[in-house]
Amino acid sequence: MPITLRQLTHIYHAGTPMAQQGIVAIDLEITEPVIVAIIGQTGSGKTTLIQHMNGLLKPTDGSIQIDEWHIDRQTKTAVLQGLYQRVGMVFQYPEHQLFEATVYDDIAYGPRNMNLSESEVAERVVQAMTMVGLDPDAIRHRSPLQLSGGQKRRVALAGVLAMRPQKMILDEPTVGLDPQGREAILQLIRSLHETWQMTIILISHNMDDIAQLADRVIVMKEGRMIYEGASAALFLDQAKLLQFGITAPYGVQLVHQLRAKGWPIEPQGLNEEQILDAIIEGMHRQTDTPSSTRPTAPAMEGEP
Ligand SMILES: Nc1ncnc2c1ncn2[C@@H]1O[C@H](COP(=O)(O)OP(=O)(O)OP(=O)(O)O)[C@@H](O)[C@H]1O
């Protein structure tokens, strides 16, 4: 079932002198399962948008349809709570919200709030820990405070997964992690999507993360959605990148630079492997081209 937004609008403190525009008239259809990235400058409405997708905010105008939930300004708060459990939200720096004495209790917090039996809670905690690559026997009794940054983030993710959401929203999932921790979280997100067919919506400022993960990209500006489309199409369109003030991922920049120098490279995708294949293919094509028509390869430094 697609996620459908119709003229979705949110004005904070609507009808008061403090009224502040959050998002305006957003029409969007997300066909699942998919990984969607939301980008945009600070204050552009990214957080306001995602908070409608898990029932933390209600529209002041327009509507949002997620599975059986149709939400508009009339929707009662109790109805929103069901959505909150179905669509998991992982906040920026979620590890700052680990507050229980043990890893087990932290992950069990969400399922316990769902009034499940303790045996069901235990089953979910172990499954969620396994899903995020944490060894349940090794760390369940440890304090979350004793874990590394990457492990803490996995615990926070497991806490959301233990509620068995069908969709997940991640706010800056790799921010503050070292390169190894970042790579591990990217892999985890990819495997959640592929193994569980989970729709994942993420906010990110990291274009390399987006190039590696996202099928689609939404660009927000001043509360409005100014672009929605395939991430590959956006990153390969230099005019749009310039228009939106987006710096392309490193691999894509390399492709643009090589193309500008006449290398016949036509990348079909965006992840590192695809870009590398495209560059190698371009090199082969260049070698096959008769020398009179061959574009000039970039000269190495120090070469004539
Ligand atoms: N609780 C609030 N009360 C009033 N205005 C708000 C509130 N939250 C956000 N806004 C306003 O709504 C607009 C969109 O904010 P939002 O937080 O959605 O942007 P964002 O793109 O997520 O920004 P950032 O990247 O800084 O998190 C901004 O003008 C902001 O000032």
TrEMBL record:
Predominant location category: membrane
Function of the protein: ATP-binding (A) component of a common energy-coupling factor (ECF) ABC-transporter complex.
Keywords assigned: ATP-binding, Cell membrane, Membrane, Nucleotide-binding, Translocase, Transport
Assembly notes: Forms a stable energy-coupling factor (ECF) transporter complex composed of 2 membrane-embedded substrate-binding proteins (S component), 2 ATP-binding proteins (A component) and 2 transmembrane proteins (T component).
Location of this chain's protein in the cell: Cell membrane
Membrane topology of the entry: Peripheral membrane protein
Cross-referenced PANTHER family: ENERGY-COUPLING FACTOR TRANSPORTER ATP-BINDING PROTEIN ECFA2, HEAVY METAL TRANSPORTER
Similarity comment text for this entry: Belongs to the ABC transporter superfamily. Energy-coupling factor EcfA family.
Enzyme Commission number, as recorded: 7.-.-.-
Domain ABC transporter as annotated: residue spans: 6-247
The protein's name: Energy-coupling factor transporter ATP-binding protein EcfA2
Species of origin: Heliophilum fasciatum
Top EC category: translocase
Pfam families on file: ABC_tran
SUPFAM superfamilies, sorted: P-loop containing nucleoside triphosphate hydrolases (SSF52540)
GO cellular component: ATP-binding cassette (ABC) transporter complex
UniProt GO MF annotations: ATP binding; ATP hydrolysis activity; ATPase-coupled transmembrane transporter activity
